[in-house]
From TrEMBL:
Keyword Phosphoprotein: no
Protein name: Phenylacetic acid degradation bifunctional protein PaaZ
Gene name for this UniProt entry: paaN
Domain of life (superkingdom): Bacteria
Pfam family, one: MaoC_dehydratas
Keyword Transcription annotated: no
UniProt cross-references to InterPro entries, sorted A to Z: Ald_DH/histidinol_DH, Ald_DH_C, Ald_DH_N, Aldehyde_DH_dom, HotDog_dom_sf, MaoC-like_dom, PaaN-DH
PANTHER family named in the record: ALDEHYDE DEHYDROGENASE B-RELATED
Domain Aldehyde dehydrogenase stretches: 31-441
Amino acid sequence: MLASFVQDRWVTPTDGLVDIPSAIDGRTVACASSDGVDFAAAVQHAREVGGPALRALTFHERADRLKALAAFLSERKEALYALSADTGATKRDNLFDIDGGIGTLFAYASRGRRELPAERFVIEGGTEALSRGGSFVGLHVLTPLNGVGVHINAFNFPCWGMLEKLAPTILAGVPVITKPATATAYVAEALVRLIVEANVLPKGAVQFVCGSAGDLLDHLGGQDVVSFTGSAETSERLRNHPSIGRNAVRFIAERDSLNAAVLGPDATAGSPELDLFVKEVVREMTVKAGQKCTAVRRIVVPRSLETTVTDAIKAQLDKITVGDPRRDEVRMGPLASLSQRAALRDAVAALSAETEIVAGDPERVAPVGGDADKGAFMAPVLLRCAEPLRARRVHTIEPFGPVATVMPYDTLDDAVAIVAKGEGSLVASVFTYDEAVADALVFGLAPFHGRVLILDRDCAKESTGHGSPLPGLVHGGPGRAGGGEEMGGLRGVFHYMQRTALQGSPARLASLTRTWLKGAPAPVAAVHPFKREYEALAVGDTVETGSRTITIADIEHFADFTGDSFYAHMDEAAAKANPFFPGRVAHGYLILSFAAGLFVDPAPGPLLANYGLDNLRFLKPVSPGEAIRVRLTVKEKRPARKPEYGEVRWDVEVFNQDGETVARYDLLTMSARRDASSSA
Ligand code: NDP
């Protein structure tokens, strides 16, 4: 019997139990019910216990916990593999669901450390100048919502579906109540048991509801986020729930999607792109028995290549062995349940008004192993729609299984129009080696998709494929696909945070955000900051240098030494003819080099290395005879993962003798820590 994990306790149901059958042979694998779960108390627990505990941690501390969790799960994934077989998943399918889910946790842990500050808020973008005198400025901050992330997941990816939502939410500092689809809840429950056993997340950070969602949504408000994956019908029902509308609860939906793969007209029989197309379509139809939100449902091919492509797909589908996913020779397991298969057969029947079957029999298959009657096996089915521009159902009914339809097109505009009839999908892939074809298809399809993959001979070997959502890239799509967005690197984290514009004086905003802003106090440090360990540096500590006059001899020496004898530095007449220069000017890199010469403290000390520059701009040319000076200010400090040093971002502004800015940039350095054994 599956239990829920609510208020940091396992709640075992006694009533309302639903049997969950094995996809392989129909035997009852588990039973579930959310009976006994107090949803109001769960929401309150998330808000009052999980949220404050997570918000007390910095992004780096949350990221470290996600990493520890990922490592813990990684060592125990075999147990999840074993359970997953009953959902119909093969070993190959587990790579997507279980390894993919753990990989997403690792990816977010690493992004949190690299791309977010050791703080509890994020500054987004730069400072906005709001006044002439510079005493009133604005900037944007993101802070974690004070509510709960309610995640309602589909049956097809019990692990990945949970973890890809959980990772960005926890990293944002928001607790989670996660609800799996009942059909595969036993895998999700096992995963949550491991999460609880790992004991790395704070109390109240993760709660788990097994069974129906009860009155959960009734308790949500404006600080909460619902992220849903599943059917369009359920999504619509939830979106129209009174609490969601009334309280402006953020609602992210990922739902039906009739993804397309389009073969360019430049492909020919035997060309790499045609072969890749066939391989990818077959893979998409059969991985997870086609029960993937990103699977290819519409196979859009030039009419002249239709027979060639169809024959090639048929030949490959013939080689797919359907059966018990635990057997080595089996390439495709059963669907998740008999009801899922019944729904799929209904979908194929509904599509028959516009299609003909060209391969596979939806009613018959001889599985290798498993129970042919009680298991949810089905053969891959290839359909053909001769006039896709005139059809409707093939663009609106999502056959959620190993079923896809070949659709011939005559012109590129037609190909785009056919795909667009899906009214918004998660992903489309384009197979071409022709620049003009790629241009027409990609920019024609992009407005209707969250992701477009362009697959050709150059990237095929390393491509992650049509069907793989990636933590760094947006997953979601407009229209029918739900209009939501998940992952996409930090974009997915920011869904769980509030963006606020702050307005005030540079001094106030700098002290609030622990980041130096132009116009904020910049006290000249008594000791050169390069002589100070990381801990002793204060944001705002400044070096004001003396000045150095740049001579024509300096410019010529620099040109000779570096080999950069660009005319603007070496040829007076040519430089004068250039509208940007008054005559020969100093190299930008000379200015940078001289700036460093002015501000460095040369003695060995705690400053370990300069590892780059950001946002460099040369704002005004410097002519021979002019003098430059530099202001160097500690802009931001950031502890590194290693305890030996911290990262320091410096604001560097180079002025001429008239006080005009000639160059500005961020200098990035590493400074040793006083106590190398201390952590962030
Ligand atoms: P559903 O929409 O039926 O269920 C999705 C999730 O919503 C499940 O966790 C389900 O829980 C939950 N749910 C259902 N009703 C409610 C409710 N009233 N309140 C709160 N939660 C609710 O989708 P399925 O997973 O059953 O899949 C059905 C179809 O959805 C598929 O055949 C396919 O067409 C489509 N689908 C599309 C996906 C996509 O991303 N494109 C992904 C998966 C499915 P419970 O299981 O307990 O009912």
